[in-house]
Design a protein that fits this description.
Blueprint (H helix, E strand, L loop, with lengths): L10 H8 L3 H21 L4 H21 L8 H20 L1 H6 L11 H12 L9 H17 L10 H21 L6 H5 L16 H12 L4 H14 L4 H13 L3 H13 L5 H14 L3 H8 L9 H12 L1
C-alpha cells in the first residue's frame, strides 16, 4: 500500500524502517533513488552498483537503529544521501582505489553534525549479516527487493523470446477482459483505491500512554483489521479530542466498516480544518459515497481536491476510472 500522508517528522523514516513500512520505503525510493543513481554512475559505477549502495545503506540504518537509539535532529535526506556517498566510497576503494581516493563525500546542505556523521560511520562499519530471528527485517528485505526493478532497472536481464512472451500476455489479457465483460461481478473500485498506511511513532519498550494506543491501532489498521483499530482510536480521542491523526484514521476505518455516517462525521471535521490530512479526508469522503453507489457525490468530492495536493493523482485516476 502506498501512503498518502506527508512526512513532517524525519524520525518517521527511521520508525518506518523499524516497522518495515511499505509506505515509508516507497517514499524513500521516490525521493532519493534517482539522486543515488546519479551519484554512483557519475563516479564510475553502474546502475546495479547504485542499487546495491541504496539497499545496503537502508539495511545498515535498520540494523543500527534496531540495536541503538537513533534519533535524528538533522534532515533524513542529508543523513541518507551522505551515508550513500560514504558507502560508495567504501565500494570504490575496493573496486578502483584511485577513484576511491579522489571521491570525497560531502553532506548535502544544510549539512550534518558530528554525532550524525558518527551514526553513519558506525552503522556502515557494523556487520549486517542477520544475527537472530527477525521477521521485521525479513519483511523489509522483501519490500526493498521489490523496489529494485522499479527504480534501478537494468537492461542486462535474462533474455527471453519477446514476441512469444508478448503474444501469450496478450492472449491472457484478452481472456481476462472477456471474463470481466461477461461476468455478473465487477472489480471492486473501492478496494482498488482505498489502500493507505497508518503512520505512527515507533513504540518504546514499556510505553503506556497515547503513543502505545496509536501503535496498537496502527498495527491493526495496517493489517486491515479496522474493527479492532476503531476502539483503540476511540480511546485516543477520549484522551485528546483534538488528535487529528486519530480522528482521520478512525474516519477511514469507519468507512471501511460501512459505518458511513460516523466515518464521514470524522472526515468532515478533518476537511473543515487545515491539517495535512485535509485532502486525504476529502478523498475518503468521495470513496464513502462510491461505496454507497452515489457516483455524483463521489465526483463532487473528488473535484474539491486541488492540483497541488499530494492525493490529486489518485483523485484523477479515480475520476478516469468512473468515466470509463
Amino acid at each position: 500500500m502506498v501512503s498518502s500522508r506527508i512526512i513532517n517528522n524525519d524520525d518517521e523514516y527511521i520508525d518506518g524502517l523499524l516497522d518495515s513500512s511499505p509506505a515509508i520505503v516507497d517514499v524513500i525510493y521516490k525521493r532519493f533513488a534517482r539522486k543515488v543513481k546519479h551519484m554512483v554512475t557519475g563516479w564510475g559505477g553502474n546502475i546495479r552498483e547504485a542499487a546495491n549502495v541504496f539497499e545496503d545503506v537502508l539495511m545498515a540504518i535498520y540494523d543500527y537503529a534496531h540495536h541503538h537509539k537513533l534519533t535524528l535532529t538533522n534532515p533524513f535526506e542529508t543523513f541518507f544521501l551522505y551515508a550513500c556517498q560514504l558507502k560508495w566510497k567504501q565500494d570504490l576503494m575496493q573496486k578502483s582505489p584511485g577513484k576511491g581516493m579522489a571521491f570525497h563525500p560531502v553532506a548535502p546542505a544544510p549539512g550534518l553534525d558530528e554525532q550524525h556523521i558518527r551514526y553513519i560511520e558506525e552503522a556502515l562499519a557494523s556487520p549486517h549479516n542477520k544475527q537472530e530471528a527477525d521477521n521485521v527485517r525479513d519483511e523489509l528485505e522483501e519490500i526493498i527487493a521489490g523496489q529494485r526493478q522499479r527504480w534501478f532497472h537494468t537492461k542486462d536481464t535474462p533474455s527471453v523470446n519477446v514476441s512469444i512472451y508478448v503474444s501469450i500476455t496478450a492472449i491472457i489479457a484478452a481472456a481476462l477482459a472477456g471474463l470481466l465483460f461477461l461476468s455478473p461481478w465487477r472489480k471492486d473500485i473501492y478496494r482498488q483505491f482505498s489502500g493507505t498506511e497508518m503512520m505512527h511513532a515507533h513504540r518504546v519498550q514499556g510505553e503506556q500512554d497515547t503513543s502505545l494506543l496509536l501503535h496498537q491501532a496502527a498495527a491493526n489498521f495496517n493489517r486491515g483489521h479496522f474493527g479492532a483499530a476503531i476502539p483503540l482510536l476511540d480511546k485516543v480521542l477520549q484522551k485528546d479530542s483534538l488528535h487529528i491523526a486519530a480522528r482521520y484514521y478512525r474516519g477511514v476505518s469507519l468507512v471501511d466498516e460501512r459505518r458511513m455516517t460516523e466515518g464521514r462525521t470524522d472526515l468532515l471535521k478533518i476537511y473543515a480544518g487545515n491539517s495535512p490530512y485535509r485532502y486525504d479526508a476529502a478523498f475518503y469522503i468521495a470513496l464513502s459515497y462510491l461505496r454507497e453507489g452515489d457516483k455524483q457525490q463521489c465526483l463532487e468530492w473528488l473535484l474539491k481536491i486541488p492540483e497541488n495536493s499530494h492525493v490529486y493523482w489518485k483523485a484523477t485516476r479515480l475520476r478516469e476510472e468512473l468515466a470509463s
